[in-house]
Protein backbone atom coordinates (compact mmCIF):
# COMPACT_ATOMS: atom_id res chain seq x y z
CA UNK A 1 0.00 0.00 0.00
CA UNK A 2 1.55 3.29 -1.11
CA UNK A 3 1.75 5.91 1.63
CA UNK A 4 0.67 9.48 0.88
CA UNK A 5 3.60 11.61 -0.25
CA UNK A 6 2.00 14.59 1.48
CA UNK A 7 2.10 12.72 4.80
CA UNK A 8 5.81 12.01 4.35
CA UNK A 9 6.59 15.62 3.35
CA UNK A 10 4.64 17.05 6.30
CA UNK A 11 6.37 14.68 8.73
CA UNK A 12 9.80 15.70 7.45
CA UNK A 13 8.78 19.36 7.66
CA UNK A 14 7.57 18.83 11.23
CA UNK A 15 11.04 17.58 12.23
CA UNK A 16 12.66 20.58 10.54
CA UNK A 17 10.35 23.01 12.32
CA UNK A 18 11.13 21.33 15.65
CA UNK A 19 14.87 21.64 15.05
CA UNK A 20 14.51 25.29 14.04
CA UNK A 21 12.33 26.17 17.04
CA UNK A 22 14.25 24.16 19.67
CA UNK A 23 16.84 26.84 20.59
CA UNK A 24 14.08 29.39 21.20
CA UNK A 25 11.71 27.21 23.24
CA UNK A 26 11.55 27.53 27.04
CA UNK A 27 12.79 24.60 29.11
CA UNK A 28 9.16 23.68 29.92
CA UNK A 29 6.63 23.80 27.09
CA UNK A 30 2.84 23.49 27.09
CA UNK A 31 1.51 20.30 25.52
CA UNK A 32 -2.07 20.26 26.82
CA UNK A 33 -4.81 22.83 27.26
CA UNK A 34 -7.98 22.79 29.37
CA UNK A 35 -11.55 23.52 28.31
CA UNK A 36 -10.90 27.26 28.59
CA UNK A 37 -7.91 27.07 26.27
CA UNK A 38 -5.43 27.57 29.10
CA UNK A 39 -2.26 25.48 29.22
CA UNK A 40 -2.48 22.89 32.02
CA UNK A 41 0.04 20.22 30.95
CA UNK A 42 3.77 20.72 30.41
CA UNK A 43 6.87 18.74 29.43
CA UNK A 44 10.53 19.41 28.73
CA UNK A 45 11.17 21.13 25.43
CA UNK A 46 12.72 18.09 23.74
CA UNK A 47 9.63 15.98 24.28
CA UNK A 48 7.31 18.86 23.41
CA UNK A 49 9.19 19.59 20.19
CA UNK A 50 9.67 16.08 18.88
CA UNK A 51 6.74 14.03 20.20
CA UNK A 52 4.32 15.23 17.45
CA UNK A 53 6.74 14.39 14.58
CA UNK A 54 7.40 11.00 16.21
CA UNK A 55 3.65 10.36 16.36
CA UNK A 56 3.36 11.33 12.69
CA UNK A 57 6.18 8.91 11.87
CA UNK A 58 4.43 6.14 13.80
CA UNK A 59 1.22 6.90 11.89
CA UNK A 60 2.97 6.58 8.53
CA UNK A 61 4.50 3.25 9.55
CA UNK A 62 1.20 2.00 10.95
CA UNK A 63 -0.76 2.94 7.83
CA UNK A 64 1.89 1.21 5.75
CA UNK A 65 1.91 -2.11 7.62
CA UNK A 66 -1.76 -2.53 8.57
CA UNK A 67 -2.85 -3.75 5.11
CA UNK A 68 -0.18 -6.46 5.21
CA UNK A 69 -1.73 -8.05 8.31
CA UNK A 70 -5.38 -7.64 7.34
CA UNK A 71 -7.08 -10.93 6.32
CA UNK A 72 -8.95 -8.82 3.77
CA UNK A 73 -5.78 -7.22 2.39
CA UNK A 74 -7.07 -7.51 -1.17
CA UNK A 75 -9.77 -4.93 -0.33
CA UNK A 76 -7.21 -2.15 0.10
CA UNK A 77 -6.45 -2.09 -3.61
CA UNK A 78 -10.08 -1.12 -4.20
CA UNK A 79 -9.85 2.05 -2.09
CA UNK A 80 -6.17 2.91 -2.33
CA UNK A 81 -6.81 6.56 -3.20
CA UNK A 82 -9.18 7.06 -0.28
CA UNK A 83 -6.73 5.30 2.04
CA UNK A 84 -4.00 7.70 0.94
CA UNK A 85 -6.30 10.68 1.54
CA UNK A 86 -7.11 9.37 5.02
CA UNK A 87 -3.37 9.17 5.71
CA UNK A 88 -2.78 12.67 4.34
CA UNK A 89 -5.72 14.15 6.28
CA UNK A 90 -4.46 12.72 9.57
CA UNK A 91 -0.94 13.95 8.83
CA UNK A 92 -2.29 17.46 8.06
CA UNK A 93 -4.24 17.47 11.31
CA UNK A 94 -1.25 16.49 13.46
CA UNK A 95 1.00 18.87 11.56
CA UNK A 96 -1.31 21.81 12.24
CA UNK A 97 -1.49 20.86 15.93
CA UNK A 98 2.30 20.69 15.97
CA UNK A 99 2.65 24.15 14.42
CA UNK A 100 0.08 25.58 16.85
CA UNK A 101 1.96 24.07 19.80
CA UNK A 102 5.31 25.44 18.63
CA UNK A 103 3.93 28.91 17.91
CA UNK A 104 2.22 29.05 21.30
CA UNK A 105 5.39 28.02 23.14
CA UNK A 106 7.45 30.54 21.20
CA UNK A 107 5.33 33.23 22.84
CA UNK A 108 2.96 34.20 20.03
CA UNK A 109 -0.74 34.65 20.86
CA UNK A 110 -2.64 31.55 19.74
CA UNK A 111 -6.28 30.79 20.54
CA UNK A 112 -6.09 27.02 21.00
CA UNK A 113 -9.76 26.85 22.01
CA UNK A 114 -10.66 28.23 18.59
CA UNK A 115 -8.21 26.31 16.40
CA UNK A 116 -8.69 22.79 17.80
CA UNK A 117 -12.47 22.52 17.11
CA UNK A 118 -11.91 23.99 13.64
CA UNK A 119 -9.15 21.47 12.94
CA UNK A 120 -11.14 18.50 14.25
CA UNK A 121 -14.19 19.66 12.32
CA UNK A 122 -12.21 19.91 9.08
CA UNK A 123 -10.78 16.42 9.68
CA UNK A 124 -14.25 14.97 10.21
CA UNK A 125 -15.53 16.58 7.02
CA UNK A 126 -12.67 15.16 4.94
CA UNK A 127 -13.04 11.68 6.46
CA UNK A 128 -16.80 11.80 5.99
CA UNK A 129 -16.49 12.61 2.31
CA UNK A 130 -14.28 9.59 1.62
CA UNK A 131 -15.73 7.15 4.15
CA UNK A 132 -18.30 5.64 1.72
CA UNK A 133 -15.41 4.57 -0.53
CA UNK A 134 -13.72 2.41 2.12
CA UNK A 135 -14.15 -1.28 1.34
CA UNK A 136 -14.67 -4.14 3.78
CA UNK A 137 -11.58 -4.64 5.99
CA UNK A 138 -10.63 -5.17 9.63
CA UNK A 139 -8.58 -2.07 10.44
CA UNK A 140 -9.84 1.08 8.70
CA UNK A 141 -13.34 2.51 8.88
CA UNK A 142 -16.38 1.98 11.10
CA UNK A 143 -15.68 -1.36 12.74
CA UNK A 144 -18.67 -2.68 14.63
CA UNK A 145 -19.55 -6.37 15.12
CA UNK A 146 -22.22 -5.94 12.45
CA UNK A 147 -20.10 -4.23 9.79
CA UNK A 148 -17.33 -6.80 10.23
CA UNK A 149 -19.77 -9.66 9.79
CA UNK A 150 -21.59 -8.37 6.72
CA UNK A 151 -20.18 -6.49 3.73
CA UNK A 152 -23.67 -5.21 2.94
CA UNK A 153 -24.00 -3.74 6.43
CA UNK A 154 -20.48 -2.32 6.06
CA UNK A 155 -21.37 -0.48 2.86
CA UNK A 156 -24.67 0.87 4.22
CA UNK A 157 -23.06 1.96 7.49
CA UNK A 158 -20.22 3.78 5.74
CA UNK A 159 -22.57 5.63 3.39
CA UNK A 160 -24.62 6.71 6.40
CA UNK A 161 -21.56 7.32 8.58
CA UNK A 162 -20.00 9.56 5.97
CA UNK A 163 -22.97 11.92 6.21
CA UNK A 164 -22.89 11.82 10.01
CA UNK A 165 -19.17 12.60 10.09
CA UNK A 166 -19.67 15.61 7.83
CA UNK A 167 -22.45 16.82 10.15
CA UNK A 168 -20.17 16.21 13.15
CA UNK A 169 -17.47 18.26 11.47
CA UNK A 170 -19.78 21.20 10.85
CA UNK A 171 -21.22 21.06 14.38
CA UNK A 172 -17.72 20.79 15.87
CA UNK A 173 -16.75 23.99 14.07
CA UNK A 174 -19.89 25.74 15.32
CA UNK A 175 -18.87 25.12 18.94
CA UNK A 176 -16.37 27.98 18.57
CA UNK A 177 -19.28 30.36 19.14
CA UNK A 178 -19.24 29.20 22.77
CA UNK A 179 -16.15 29.50 24.93
CA UNK A 180 -14.86 27.81 28.04
CA UNK A 181 -16.44 24.70 29.53
CA UNK A 182 -19.66 25.03 27.50
CA UNK A 183 -17.67 24.81 24.27
CA UNK A 184 -15.86 21.70 25.52
CA UNK A 185 -19.10 20.03 26.63
CA UNK A 186 -20.81 20.71 23.29
CA UNK A 187 -17.75 19.51 21.40
CA UNK A 188 -17.67 16.21 23.31
CA UNK A 189 -21.42 15.74 22.96
CA UNK A 190 -21.20 16.13 19.19
CA UNK A 191 -18.52 13.44 18.95
CA UNK A 192 -20.09 11.01 21.43
CA UNK A 193 -23.65 11.19 20.13
CA UNK A 194 -22.51 11.18 16.52
CA UNK A 195 -20.62 7.93 17.04
CA UNK A 196 -23.46 6.38 19.03
CA UNK A 197 -25.90 7.32 16.26
CA UNK A 198 -23.73 5.57 13.67
CA UNK A 199 -23.38 2.46 15.84
CA UNK A 200 -27.12 2.22 16.44
CA UNK A 201 -27.84 2.62 12.73
CA UNK A 202 -25.27 -0.06 11.96
CA UNK A 203 -27.11 -2.46 14.27
CA UNK A 204 -30.42 -1.59 12.61
CA UNK A 205 -28.94 -2.30 9.17
CA UNK A 206 -27.77 -5.67 10.49
CA UNK A 207 -31.24 -6.45 11.83
CA UNK A 208 -32.71 -5.63 8.43
CA UNK A 209 -30.27 -8.03 6.75
CA UNK A 210 -31.13 -10.76 9.22
CA UNK A 211 -34.85 -10.38 8.54
CA UNK A 212 -34.23 -10.59 4.79
CA UNK A 213 -32.35 -13.86 5.24
CA UNK A 214 -34.95 -15.45 7.50
Overall shape: globular
- Percent helix range: 55-70%
Number of helices, counting only DSSP H or I runs of 4 residues or more: 7
Tell me, rounded to a whole number, the average pLDDT: 91
Through-space gap between termini: 39 Å
Give the SSE order as H and E letters: HEEHHHHHH
Radius of gyration in whole Å, from Cα?
A: 19 Å
Largest sheet: 2 strands, antiparallel
Taking pLDDT < 50 over at least 5 consecutive residues as the criterion, the unreliable ranges are none
User: Going across the major beta sheet, what is the strand order?
Assistant: 1-2
| Strand segment tally | 2
Q: Which class best fits the helix and strand makeup?
A: mainly alpha
β-sheet strand percentage: 5-15%
Question: What does the model show?
Answer:
- It is a single chain.
- The relative contact order is 0.12.
- With 214 residues, this protein is mainly α.
- The longest helix has 33 residues, at 181-213.
- 70% of the residues lie in helices and 6% in strands.
- A hairpin with a 5-residue loop joins strand 1 and strand 2 (39-44).
- The chain has helices at 5-21, 45-69, 80-105, 112-130, 145-149, 151-174, 181-213, and strands spanning 28-33, 39-44.
- The chain has a two-stranded antiparallel sheet with strand order 1-2.
- The N and C termini lie far apart (39 Å).
